[in-house]
């Protein structure tokens, strides 16, 4: 869901976090709530047609389009607000089926929010129903390139075939075949990375309600090596143990080639909401 263009008619606006069924969300406001994105605001529900948006008031001097764009370049300002946004969404997502909204969804007034809820009621209810009893889990795939290069000769069918030919060839031919193998190692390692990511996505998709690949940033890395794949899965809570067992089995299978899997979550299902 994109932020609505804000026109300065008042000094405040409404910041939205997530959307759910009004009857389900209302009792959650009576519990101990996380801090809203700004201290002067308070979390409230804006309702229409049986749906409710979790919102809090913010100042237009900080959240109109121009000011918000400037704040996005301020790492310290963004870190606190992004953390608070995530904590609010996470609080409701752990307790109810909600459509999580990305950071920065702003409406000028209650009437605008209520109109959006009415106009998109069918779409929002379909999303809420789909997410019921489900949560998002991430799988990060890391690769130790040195370990992969060391193992690639025993993994690649093409390299194994050339090795067989070299063993049966004359000394001169064997030398040339092994030189060819050396030049092929990087290409075969690259292909193995693609095959491994595809296999993990395919096999874990079978135990989930949906899967998607996430964009990799350039040269992302972690303590386990280079990040070569980021996947998100929509998993039924009651089937999570099966999903985790499948991930652990895959981690064992691909570990000998230098791959490591990192399971993260649960997260609000941002990547399984079609319009956000």
Describe this structure as you would to a colleague.
The chain folds into two domains: about 10-130; about 135-150 and about 185-270, LOR/SDH bifunctional enzyme, conserved domain (Alpha-Beta Plaits, 2-Layer Sandwich), CATH 3.30.70. It is elongated. Helix content is about 45%, strand content about 25%. It has helices at about 20-25, 60-65, 65-70, 75-95, 110-120, 120-130, 145-155, 155-170, 170-205, 240-255; strands at about 10-20, 45-50, 50-60, 100-105, 135-145, 210-215, 220, 225-235, 260-265. The chain starts with 11 loop residues before the first strand and ends in a 9-residue tail after the last strand. The longest helix has about 35 residues, at about 170-205. It has about 280 residues and is of the alpha+beta class. Strands 5, 6, 7, 8 and 9 form a five-stranded antiparallel β-sheet that branches. It has a four-stranded antiparallel β-sheet with strand order 2-3-1-4, with helices on both faces. Helix 7 crosses helix 9 (about 170-205), helix 8 (about 155-170) runs antiparallel to helix 9 and helix 9 runs antiparallel to helix 10. The protein has ten helices and nine strands. About 30% of the residues are buried.
């Amino acid at each position: 869901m994109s932020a609505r263009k804000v026109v300065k008619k008042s000094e405040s606006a409404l910041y939205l976090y997530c959307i759910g069924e009004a009857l389900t969300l209302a009792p959650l406001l009576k519990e101990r709530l996380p801090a809203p994105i700004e201290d002067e605001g308070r979390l409230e529900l804006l309702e229409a047609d049986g749906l409710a948006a979790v919102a809090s008031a913010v100042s237009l001097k900080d959240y109109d389009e121009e000011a918000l764009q400037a704040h996005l370049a301020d790492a310290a300002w963004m870190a606190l607000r992004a953390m608070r946004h995530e904590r609010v969404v996470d609080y409701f997502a752990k307790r109810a089926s909600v459509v999580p909204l990305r950071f920065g969804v702003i409406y000028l007034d209650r009437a605008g929010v209520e109109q959006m809820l009415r106009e998109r009621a069918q779409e929002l209810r379909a999303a809420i129903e789909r997410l019921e009893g489900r949560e998002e889990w991430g799988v990060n795939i890391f690769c130790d390139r040195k370990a992969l290069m060391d193992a690639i000769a025993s993994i690649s069918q093409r390299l194994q075939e050339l090795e067989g030919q070299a063993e049966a060839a004359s000394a001169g031919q064997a030398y040339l075949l092994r030189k060819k193998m050396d030049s092929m190692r990087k290409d075969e390692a690259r292909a193995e990375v693609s095959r491994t990511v595809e296999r993990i996505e395919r096999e874990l998709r079978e135990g989930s309600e949906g899967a998607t690949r996430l964009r990799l940033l350039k040269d992302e890395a972690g303590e386990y090596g280079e990040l070569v794949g980021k996947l998100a899965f929509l998993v039924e809570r009651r089937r999570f143990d099966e999903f985790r067992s499948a991930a652990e089995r895959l981690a064992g299978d691909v570990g000998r080639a230098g791959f490591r899997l990192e399971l993260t979550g649960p997260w609000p299902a941002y990547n399984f909401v079609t319009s956000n």
